[in-house]
């Protein structure tokens, strides 16, 4: 017996009344941050692109004049066909749903819709050339390739690039601000805030360069990739040339060898690169969170904002924590897309259909993370007083410099002697100076070591920031 109240139905009804009857938070709470992706990777966007491909293929066949039964369309008819694809509205979405309930086939529903729109017009006599010699995957693979291409290039890549440049800008601003480094969480050779940020910016830029260079492949070659139907209908036509011209005219790279489906390898390659960007960004989040917890970074507060429901003093690093979670979700989906899309039983199975419908979700969680990190970084400021206090309490980190100079001048057991002085101990400035003076080093070397402080022992960290170009885009390379 189920004695639980019907909470889920009540919640669903409330959500529906609010226009938020969604299962994914990307379509509810976080919609503003990912809105741009819906234009390219939603179900209506997919059907709109399928319709565009069907129209484009009919126009291509007409313009090529390779089929004896297909006349050349007039300029007015060409514009009418383009209009069918352009006038994709809510009514079109509803009509496609009606057709699919009958066809139980989403691509066939698009074909029938186009034929309906041609009925009763001067184009009715060419309607049977709609979807000519095509399998559904000839339409699908081109639609997905174009949608993913635009989603990445017009939405994800600009946002991810702007974030990398935001990190680079911070690196330049803080290039000379000394900071105690930590290896294994323990005090280590000092660095600068800017150099550490520059490392992350450089890593992000390398992955963006790879994403920018991604290939988007497409095919149009029939039910098993052999042009069998094409050849049977018009054996004298160079169907490979027709196919290549069409695919490349869609702004894609032509794949000459496929089964019924385009093999999706390009997708796996692209998602691997996006996933690596995500992992680097995740590393930035964990480092930023740690620096905040150490007091190196302070967070600027927004008027009226609440950090903790019970502890009013707290300003929680929620942007970075939310980003971590979204990056994990994105990478989980991108990884399963990479793994599954490259395999299809023999000529075709439908596992890729459900998988590809989640591309927008995978990129959406990444885009949401990018938005969170950008906002998080925008609220940070460096607290130089905390950095300086941490450095001043860690004179033992100069032990590396001292033992290296001792080794250069042939002194015995330099590592061991510094280990005895510093390991597991806090050493202040006077103690380190006393040790250096008693080493018997040449005067010049002694003077150089005595000038060192934890604040100045940063090597050429500030110069290394210059490896980031003044302004960067993926076009510039890594």
How would you describe this protein?
InterPro entries: Fumarase/histidase_N (IPR024083), Fumarate_lyase_CS (IPR020557), Fumarate_lyase_fam (IPR000362), Fumarate_lyase_N (IPR022761), L-Aspartase-like (IPR008948), Pur_lyase (IPR004769), PurB_bact (IPR047136), PurB_C (IPR013539). Keywords: Lyase, Purine biosynthesis. This is Adenylosuccinate lyase. The chain is mainly alpha-helical. The protein has three domains: 38-134, Orthogonal Bundle (Fumarase C, Chain B, domain 1); 138-301 and 313-385, Fumarase C, Chain A, domain 2, CATH 1.20.200; 395-453, Fumarase/aspartase (C-terminal domain) (Ribonucleotide Reductase Protein R1, domain 1, Orthogonal Bundle), CATH 1.10.40.30. The protein is built from 20 helices and six strands. It has helices at 7-17, 31-41, 43-64, 75-86, 90-103, 106-118, 136-173, 193-212, 228-233, 239-249, 265-294, 318-341, 351-356, 359-378, 384-392, 399-408, 414-422, 429-437, 443-451, 461-464, and strands at 178-183, 186-192, 217-218, 253-254, 297-299, 380-382. Strand 1 and strand 2 (186-192) form a beta hairpin. Helix 3 crosses helix 6 and helix 8 (193-212) packs antiparallel against helix 11 (265-294). The radius of gyration is 31 Å and the shape is elongated. The protein starts with 6 loop residues before the first helix and ends in a 14-residue tail after the last helix.
Short description:
This protein has 478 residues and is mainly α. It is built from 20 helices and six strands.
